[in-house]
Design brief:
- This is HAD domain-containing protein.
- Pfam families: HAD_SAK_2.
- It is a single chain.
- By secondary structure, the chain is α/β, with parallel strands linked by helices.
- The chain has one domain: 3-Layer(aba) Sandwich (Rossmann fold), CATH 3.40.50.
- 31% of the residues lie in helices and 18% in strands.
- The protein is built from seven helices and six strands; from the N terminus they run E-E-E-H-E-H-H-H-E-H-H-E-H.
- A hairpin with a 3-residue loop joins strand 2 and strand 3.
Amino acid sequence: MRKLLGHGELLLYLDFDGVLHHENVLWHPRIGAYLSAPEQYKLFQHIGLLETLLEPYPQVRIVLSTAWVCRYGCAKSAKQLGPRLRQRVIGATFHSRMDQDMFTALPRGKQVWEDVRRRKPSGWIALDDDGVKRSLDLIQLWNANAAWI
C-alpha cells in the first residue's frame, strides 16, 4: 500500500469559512462565492495572518478541510489561498472517489479524523470553527504530537 502525501509530516487541517473570513459564505451560479456579512469583511481576509503564523514552521503542510473542495475541487480551492499558502497544500479531506452526500453528512471532526487515520501524520492540528458545534470534538482528537504550534 502506497503512503499518502503527509505521511509522517506535520499537518494543518484548514477550513475556510469562519477561519480565513466571515462564516456566512453563500454561492450564486453566476457570481460564485460571496459573503453575506457587514462591509468590513472580505473573502480570505485573514490569509496574511495565517502566512505570518506559519512562517516559522516551513515543514507544516496543509490539508483542506472545507466545503469549498466539494464545490470547486482541491486545486481551485487551493488557488484562493495565494502562492505562499498554496505551495503547502498537499490535498483535502474530500476527494472525487468519495460519496459526496455521505461525506458531507459526517461531522467535520469525523471528516478530519478519517483523513488523519489514512495519512498517518507525525502531528496534526485542525483550524476550524466547526468543532464546538459537532458531536465529535476536534479538541478531543488533537494528536498530542502536534505541540509544535
